[in-house]
Write a structure and sequence with these properties.
alpha/beta, 6-stranded parallel beta sheet, about 30% helix, 3-stranded antiparallel beta sheet, binds 2'-O-acetyl adenosine-5-diphosphoribose
Length: about 230
């Protein structure tokens, strides 16, 4: 039976594709207040500001391509039972050919109705006020905002519990509950963290740290695991 590898990614894996991270200097949360653009309250108070914030993100995403880190991860399927969990709302894993990517924080290219939470693909770059579902409900981005539940968390936890190798790439491990996934790596022989900067996590986890950018560290690790 193939050994289970779970890969858990954050904004850092898409940084070299041209998408900003959140907490690096000049990251998105340096330029915007979370309370203005990424909470249910912000959407109730000023939906246009929120929709515009995500329209800018979507416009940038459509100009970007997956990088070698995204592509390299997919090669693991040749030897391992691979699961990918991402905090990213971009679709760069999917566009690199990954199948069954579990998104914890939703997807930028999807909307959902405020009436019944039904999810729709967004065809162009923009979602605007007045864009409604067939029942007449305003559409919002299908992303998880601060203060909202993370619906895929249970599925992610069960994946991580089964992981033989757990690889964490390009995340500051700052946002919960996503960051708590590391605590469920109970059957894991190796927990490997790829990040060019040291990560401080309040959980006392014994990471194997690869202090490299994703485009360098990921292909190296994948080739080590495939040749091991
Ligand atoms: P952060 O911006 O918090 O962290 C990005 C991490 O990527 C940092 O630790 C960087 O050191 C690292 N990094 C930067 N460049 C890199 C590179 N080229 N290769 C590898 N790593 C690199 O982003 P996340 O941890 O993903 O949630 O943030 C988690 C969540 O916070 C996001 O999903 C989003 C945000 O608020 C919501 O909006 C709900």
């Amino acid at each position: 039976m193939k050994k289970k590898v779970v890969v858990f990614t954050g904004a850092g894996i898409s940084a070299e594709s041209g998408l900003s991270t959140f907490r690096d200097s000049r990251g998105l949360w340096d330029m915007y207040n979370i309370e203005d653009v990424a909470t249910p309250n912000a959407f109730s108070k000023n939906p246009k500001i929120v929709l515009d914030f995500y329209n800018i993100r979507r416009r940038q995403l459509l100009k970007c391509k997956p990088n070698i880190a995204h592509y390299s991860i997919n090669k693991l399927i040749n030897k391992f039972d691979l699961s990918i969990i991402t905090q990213n709302i971009d679709d760069l894993h999917e566009r690199s050919g990954a199948i069954d990517v579990l998104h914890l924080h939703g997807k930028l290219i999807e909307s959902k109705s405020i009436i019944d939470n039904k999810v729709y693909q967004i065809s162009g770059e923009e979602l605007n006020l007045g864009d409604c579902c067939p029942k007449g409900g305003q559409l919002r981005p299908n992303v998880v905002w601060f203060g909202e539940q993370v619906p895929n968390m249970e599925i992610a936890i069960n994946m991580v519990k089964k992981a033989h190798i757990f690889i964490i790439i390009g995340t500051s491990l700052n946002v919960y509950p996503a960051a708590s996934l590391v605590n469920y790596a109970i059957n894991t022989k190796r927990i490997i963290l790829i990040n060019p900067n040291p990560v401080t996590n309040e959980n006392d986890i014994n990471f194997e740290l690869i202090l490299k950018k994703a485009t360098e560290g990921v292909p190296e690790l994948v080739s080590e695991l495939l040749n091991d």
